Amino acid sequence: MTMMNKLMVWAALASLFAFVPLTAFAGPYEEAQKASRAKEYTKAVSLFRPLAEAGNDDAQWYMGTFYRKGQGVEKSYEKALYWYDRSARNGDPDSQYELAKLYYYGDGTAKDHKTAFKWYLKAAEQGNKDAAYDVGYAYKKADGVKKSYKKALKWYHIASDNGDDNASVSLGIMYENGEGTKKDYRKAGKLYAKAAENGNAKGRAYLADLYYFGHAVNVDKAKAVQLYREADLLGSPYAKKRLAEFGYDNPMPHDKAYIAYLKKDFKEAISIWKKRALSGDIAAMVNLGNVQKSVASVKDYKKAKNWYELAVTFNNTEAMVELGDMYQYAQGVPRDYGKAYALYKQAARANDARGVYALATLYDDGHGIDQNMKLAMALYEKAAEMGSADAKSMVKFYQDKAIKDARWEQMVANLDAISARVARQKRECDELAYKGNLEASRRSGQYYTYHYKPPTRCLGSNVNR
User: Fold this and answer.
1) Predicted TM-score (pTM) of this structure
2) Radius of gyration of the chain (CA)
3) Is the CATH number of domain 163-252 1.10.10.10?
């Protein structure tokens, strides 16, 4: 057949197939996957088996898994080993990883850590992050291979970079203890924080140690204890031991919703809080508002606003401040300083420190109301007396500013007009930066992070001289 005739045939076939539903081409593999997803394991086994026997490595992985878990067949580690071995030798990294585990724990065969390491390494070299962690562990502990901190660091880094939180913690420990590298508490802290942020119990517990003892961070025992308590809720025996050792209890209830939140299972947390909120639980309403306002994966400003508004009807001051923030910063609603002011004032009248502080910032900046520094300072001082750390910072800032202003006025008297203008602009930008970063600190917390962005006029070279 000439090339021209082939092209004509292919064109005709393409035209014909364009009108045939794709499902018409679904083969045994797709049907087997469908049965497996539907948990129809007996059917899935009958469909995967001939494919596996014909050499399909994905089907072989499925067969190994069915035998390992006893799904659709009688549980048999020996048969799981057989199928994983066939698939692993075909180059499938997931089967290589599962085969390694069988050898490591002696399931279906004698324990053989050297053979386990061989398969962990093959899987890791093909990008399996779980295997990369195990390779790092083997090199660190001399488990089936000669000890090498250097290689352990390498593989822990690879696993951590690919999202393995246990690897991040293990890598942090190596930096904290100086194993195969110089001691570096800052790197350790970043790695622990990375794991903790993803709901890892060990990451929280070891990060707590850094805050408790002041390693590369300022000593903050209150924050350390909070982290220990959260790690304890997540099941860390180390955190429980630390709390007992330092003489602290853990009054935090083993609340399923909060634990789901700590584990970053936001959908589960929302599901539990929603049931409670509909039963009249005000704290659950506020938690729903906080999560749905700020967590990217479940963000829904409309729902957050509705939950806050419901909590406000029960005079909840936290909801008042959070809803006020939505209006002040235009989070899912048009910016409305008037509504923000009313909500902050309502919270302030109920003696809420955050409400008093937020109200002070509006008078300080003149947002939606006439600027009134005298009233702003009075509110800052009141909020500071009520325990607001942000308010204490602002009181100190303005006290220091008054001293610096007097010195500055004297200095300006000796400057020419151009230098005075540049100095004045720099001073204004420094003030904006301080207040902006403090505001970022206030708005960043358990649920989200906010960063201060300087105005354009504060980015010029003249200001930074």
Assistant:
1) 0.73
2) 31
3) no
